[in-house]
Design goal:
This protein is an alpha+beta fold. It is built from two helices and 16 strands. It has a 16-stranded antiparallel sheet that branches. The chain is globular, with a radius of gyration of 22 Å. The termini are far apart. The N terminus is likely disordered.
Length: 212
Amino acid sequence: MAMLGDNTHSRLVSALKVALPLTALVLLSMLFLLSRGHDPDAALPYAQVDIGELLREPRLTAPTYSGVTRDGDEVVFSAETAFPGAPATGNGARALAPLLRLIAPDGGETRVAAQEARIDPGAGQLVLAGAVRVETPEGYRIDSAEVQASLDRSELRSPGAVTATGPQGQIEAGGFTLTRGAEPGREVLVFNGGVKLLYQPQTPLPPPVPAP
């Protein structure tokens, strides 16, 4: 019976690790809707904001969201400004100048910066677009027009062409996926779709030995 209780507790903890971060995103979206009830006449006289503009397009300044993926990574999402409603569906939220950080238990950090982002809590997905730059703790820098991030697990992927630099040199590919490996703190980075590698060894080759 004790073992059954332990298994039930473990499943509950795993489920909450996924459900609570997604619930936080839904609540973040609801904050925008609740903010529409503000009375412009109740604003402080010295407030340096355009209340009318805020009512027409509610927003949050410098929002930050954090949670834990089911792979054990801490996920931290921040932005310069966030707005309610994604352009395509009207759900979730969109953000400007977003930064996504995936922090492994051993402290290794993957960072994704972009010009804008769309948050879809229902699909559990964050789409970063516009000059996206991915930096991994292994020394890879990947540039793409769009990167899709899962909100409940440690996974990044690009549906389009990417260029990258890494320990082996310069890489061109049709896309990439980055997931958490089986070993703690290890990432699995896979380039796909016509991969081209320009090999650049970090250690220069020794000069040739002159013939006697």
